[in-house]
Structures are given as C-alpha cells and as structure tokens.
Amino acid sequence: MNVGIDALYAYIPGNYIDVRQLAIARAEGRDPLKILNLVGQKEMAIPFNFEDIVTMSANAVKGMLEHFNTDVSQIERIVMATESSFDFSKAGASYVQELVGLKKETEVYEVKHACASGTYALLDAVNAVRAGEIKSAVVVMSDICRYERGSSAEYTQGAGAVAVLVAKNPRIIAIEPKTGTCSFNVADFYRPAGCETPIVDGKLSIESYINAVQGSFADYAHKIMLNESEILERLDNIIFHTPFPKMAERAYFALCKNLNYANSERHFEKKVKPSLSIPSRVGNVYTASLYLALASALESADREGIAGLFSYGSGCTSKFFTGIVMPYAGNIIRSLGISKQLSARRKLSIEEYERVFYDQDSIDNDYRGFKVKSIKNGYREYGSV
Ligand code: CAA
C-alpha cells in the first residue's frame, strides 16, 4: 500500500534580508565574498516579534487544510517537530490543534532531535497509517533559527514552517519502507536549557554532517542490497537537509567522491540544484529545511520519479530514505506559488532586521495570520488578524 505525503504547505514570514548586505555590514575590512561563497545563501526570512513556532505552524496547517480542501475528520494525529520550543512540558502542537480546529480524538505531541525530528515524525506517521492505526496525520515542522549577532552562523538563519498531511494513496510522494541510519554522539551544535542561541562548532558541524550523510547512505545501500553508485544513478532527485545551499552541495560532492562516481557534475545540475532554489531565499528552517528543499525540487518536477532524501540532526542522527514522486506532484506544488510569495515579501534594512529579530521591537506591518497576543505566567494566548 502506498503511504506518504498527500498535501504540503509552507508558511514563510513576510520579511527578508539580503545576506550580501549583512556580510558587508559585518565585514570589518574582510572580503564579504569569503563568507558568501562559503554559505551560498542569498536571502533570509525574518519573522515579526509576534510570530513564534506555534503561529507559523498554525499558518502552515491552516493554509494546507484550505488549499487541499482536506477532510479534517480523517486527521487522527498532529505532531510538531521543532528545536525552537519555548516549553519543556506543554506541546506546541496542543495550541495548533485548537487554532486549526482538530477534534478531541486526535493524538497530539511534540518531538525532538535537532533538524531530524520532522523526519522521525514523518516516518512514524507513515508507519502508523500503513499499519491501519490512524487514517491520516499532520506533521508540522516549525523553527526560528537564531544565532549570536555578529557570529559566522548569522548568515545561515531563517524562519518558517512546513506542514504535511500523511495519508494512503498520496498525491505528492509515496515514502518507501527501507531507511538508512547513521547516528553518533558529537558536540557539533546544541542549545542547553537557558541559552537563547545554540553553541556551534561550525567546522565540526560540517564534518559531522558529511560523515552522517555517507553513513546513512551506506546503511541504506546495505539494506536494499544495491551498490551505492547504482542508487545515485537511479535517483531523479537527491534532496538534502539544507542549513545553507553550499552545505548540501559539499555533502553531495563528498558522497560522489567517496564512491568515485563519474557523473557527479552533470547530475548535480539536474538532480540536486533545483532543491536549493527556495532554501537559498529563506535560510535555515531546521526541522522544516529538508521539506522546503523537497518543495523546491518539486516546483520543477514534470513527471513521476524517485527522490532520495537526507535528513540530518546535530548531535547527531541522520536518515536516508526514498520516495516515489507522484505524476502530478509538480503541478500541485507549483499551485502553491511559493516562489511568487517569496518575491512579494518586504525587504528589511540591516538596522530594521536587528530591531525586529534581536531586540524584539515592533515594526509597521500589514500582517495577516495567527499572532501571539500575550504571554501570562508562561502560557501563550494566540489570536489572528
Ligand atoms: N565578511 C568576510 N568574511 C567573513 C565574514 C564577513 N562578514 N564573516 C565571517 N567571515 C569569514 C571568517 O573570518 C572566516 O575567515 P577565515 O577562514 O579566513 O578565518 C570565514 O568567514 C569562516 O568563518 P568561521 O571560521 O568563523 O566559520 P566556520 O567555518 O566555523 O563556520 C559556517 C561557518 C558553518 C558556514 C557557519 O555559518 C555556521 O556555523 N553555521 C551554523 C552551523 C551549520 O549550519 N552547520 C551545518 C551542518 S550542521 C546542520 O546542518 C544542522 C543545522 O541545521 C544547524
């Protein structure tokens, strides 16, 4: 039985900054091309001070239910994947359940393993639907990626949420049962309780990511008993967790080099590059990053195919899995108009960005959607405009 992603919707905040302008502002005599070439990021989405993981999730889930005219009575689970949680106990998904009007008989929870938790939630939902435990599930991945002002990680921030509906006979992508895994304990990136921003070892994080990609791919090949180069050849799209475009590019070429894969350059343009277009304009969205890259790849899909997906969560864990892209997936994703929405965003100056993102100040807006109304005793009240 085919089970997978039947509907997908992305919510991206309506403000952005030009990463080139940020690099110039922070250059202090250095050549900004240095960092720009290292990350390959063009623009970064910036949320308003009244947006959080719940408002972005609710906007994504509501948008999905409306766009796909979903029968909400069939939804029996909602899971939020995030690494920007503001509560150690209460699940952000509970707020979202109420905001989008899901029934009381819905399983509601939140999951964590850095950027990979959305993938674990997706695979769990696929298995539960396949086993007949639930009819359909919403998995929503939502994050605000925030680093220290002036750090080298500042060019790789971003914000947004992606909601997917997991169901039988999916219209977008059917997830295949075998997955490859690679996990090991490493201090590449973590955010202990009380820290507003993560502790990051940039170089170690890149090295761990590449090792994990190679490990999970080798494990997948072992499980399906095929040669790794044959698998690369067979895939129509290879989609990576994309903290910044050059990370996906480096991981792809490292994987090919390791396998002495001859067609790497030619296949990069066709199989990997389309997935980098939307991420290069949004930035890192942690848990949602792989699924935004999937949407980006599918924007240019015109037929059925096989996609390979790499998910990486710092700390670390990783998964490689595959899916069958459905014949009309490209048309469905294009109907969302994500690239058009990105072009309609408001560009902030670096000074406005610092005020709204770091100092949490208000700026003028014509925002429409869910917003944080107040926080009383740590409990959040939400409303919509
Ligand atoms: N103008 C010119 N040069 C600049 C500059 C500017 N505005 N800002 C920084 N630079 C230079 C630095 O001076 C340095 O130059 P040298 O090599 O000559 O010293 C160079 O740019 C690189 O800076 P760092 O050495 O400080 O950076 P790094 O190599 O430690 O890390 C990075 C770089 C990974 C790209 C950084 O953006 C980062 O830490 N990002 C967050 C972590 C991350 O995304 N890692 C990816 C894998 S982990 C993952 O995927 C999970 C996840 O989602 C986070």
How confident is the prediction overall: mean pLDDT?
97
Strand content: 25-35%
Strand order of the largest sheet: 5-4-6-7-1-8-13-12-11
Radius of gyration: 20 Å
Strand count: 16
Helix fraction? 25-40%
Class from secondary-structure proportions = alpha/beta
Tally of DSSP helical segments:
14
Q: Which outline best applies?
A: globular
Instruction: Kindly report how far apart the N and C termini lie.
Output: 41 Å
The SSE string, one letter per element, is: EEHHEHEHEHEEEEEHHEHHHHEEHHEHEE
Poorly predicted ranges: none
Bound molecules: acetoacetyl-coenzyme A
Task: Write a structural description.
- The chain is of the alpha/beta class and 385 residues long.
- 37% of the residues lie in helices and 26% in strands.
- It has 14 helices and 16 strands.
- A 9-stranded mixed beta sheet has the order 5-4-6-7-1-8-13-12-11, sandwiched between helices. A 3-stranded mixed beta sheet has the order 3-2-14. Strands 9-10 form a two-stranded antiparallel sheet.
- Helix 4 links the parallel strand 4 and strand 5.
- Helix 3 runs parallel beside helix 4, helix 6 crosses helix 8 and helix 8 packs antiparallel against helix 9.
- The protein is globular and about 55 Å long.
- It starts with a strand and ends with a strand.
- The structure holds acetoacetyl-coenzyme A (CAA).
- The site of acetoacetyl-coenzyme A has 29 residues, from helix 2 and helix 6.
